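Sample A.
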Amino acid sequence: MKQGNDRHSGFSLVEVALALGIAVFALVAIIGLIPVGLNSNQASSEQTVAAGLAAGLVADLRTTPVVVPAAEENSPRYQVPLPLSGSVTHSLFLKEDGSVAGGIDANADPSLDPRYRVTLFITAPTDTTQKTATTVRILITWPAMADPKGAVAPAKYSGSYEVITALNRN
């Protein structure tokens, strides 16, 4: 700002232009970060929901009763069959609230509005005489309709969450 003896004091045109240029540069940078923040927030929300669904699936699998004599049993909530021995893969489509959108190993039905696809890789001990844990790898991917066929492993998705657990089925 010029200071002098004359009556007209204020900012010069160069000072105003420079201040506006700096303000515009800062605003453009801030506005450019908004989509990054929104995408990060969306991904975080999806991960949080998927983690909750995975915890529910693990709890459901752990509460599956062990029957004597040994037989294949289904989990109580999601009806996931747990094999006595060997490896199997199952698919399940879930809504955002965790409710099932279709049957086990069925293709996704768009009218049921599935949000998540759950693929379970279950490996039971091959030697049933030894006390070995059954391992379960749970892969949750979204959106579910990216890979709507239940019989194949997911290949196209925008996000995923994975957890591995061991079940004592002895």
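Sample B.
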Amino acid sequence: MAKKKYYDEHGNQIRSKPPKRIYQKWWVWLMVVVVVSVGIAVLGREENIEKPVSTGISKTEKEDKETNAADPEEEGMSEELTYTYEDFKGTYALFEGEPYNSPIGLDIRVIGDDSYRSFNLWDVGMASTILDKTIEENILTLHSESETEQFELRYEGDKKIMHSITNGQSFYSMSSQDLQTHYNQSEIDYARIILTINGEPSLDQWLVWEDPVVKINHSSADDPVFQIADDIVYPDDVTHLSSTIMDSNYISYTANGDGYITIYPNPSHSRAKQSEEENRQLAQEVLDNAYTIYVEPFDPYTVADFIGRVEFVYE
């Protein structure tokens, strides 16, 4: 068997196997791998440590902060409301008793874009130009030509209140929406119909009328007209209003659903001691003379005051 020959790096034959170079030894590469791995780990740790410094908070702190920001109530914090002049504008009424359940008193305030009015339902009021206005939280200070007055805006459930810091009185919002919210829709309709037909009562009239009552009853379609003749009937459902505060004491109408009503006039004369045929003619006369009118909406405070002064009795 031939003897194995060895050569050096220059190609010269040598007698024994040359030693391995340092980079050819396995343990050297193992050390290199270990050192590189440790270096990467250290550098990575240093990079992670530096990130919170650049952002100002660590990842855990950031998550906590984001959670707290998303739910401030958990920290007992609540965002303060910011009021603008639009929040204060509107019509406000002073009630004689329980708000929205009593007549309106002798003071109504209207805060407009550039003017401020104070009046009641029966006398000429006062109107002033607003010279300046300031708002601090829920406090409005109005500087008008006649005076300076401060109001505090409050909310109690669905009630919007303008409290006068100057005179200590509380005025309640009296918009169309407030009318719909705090009053019965049928009674709003009854009030508007009576006001349209009879006009707005004066203060003297309200003082003369003692505990005014409006009675309501209904007739169905095909019921006899005014119960006069069985074969002369209403074509539609009819509502009857009766009260001593009305000029005719009696209003019978059918609602058309578009702001208009059809009025059935009272019989032109008494049906007492009339023959059956005469009563039939009388009932037909009521139908033939029916007419349509538009029901005025009126200012919300006018309707609210009317409802607050009468008792509606359903029969």
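B remarks: The first strand starts at residue 6 and ends at 7. The CA atoms of residues 229 and 281 lie 9 Å apart.
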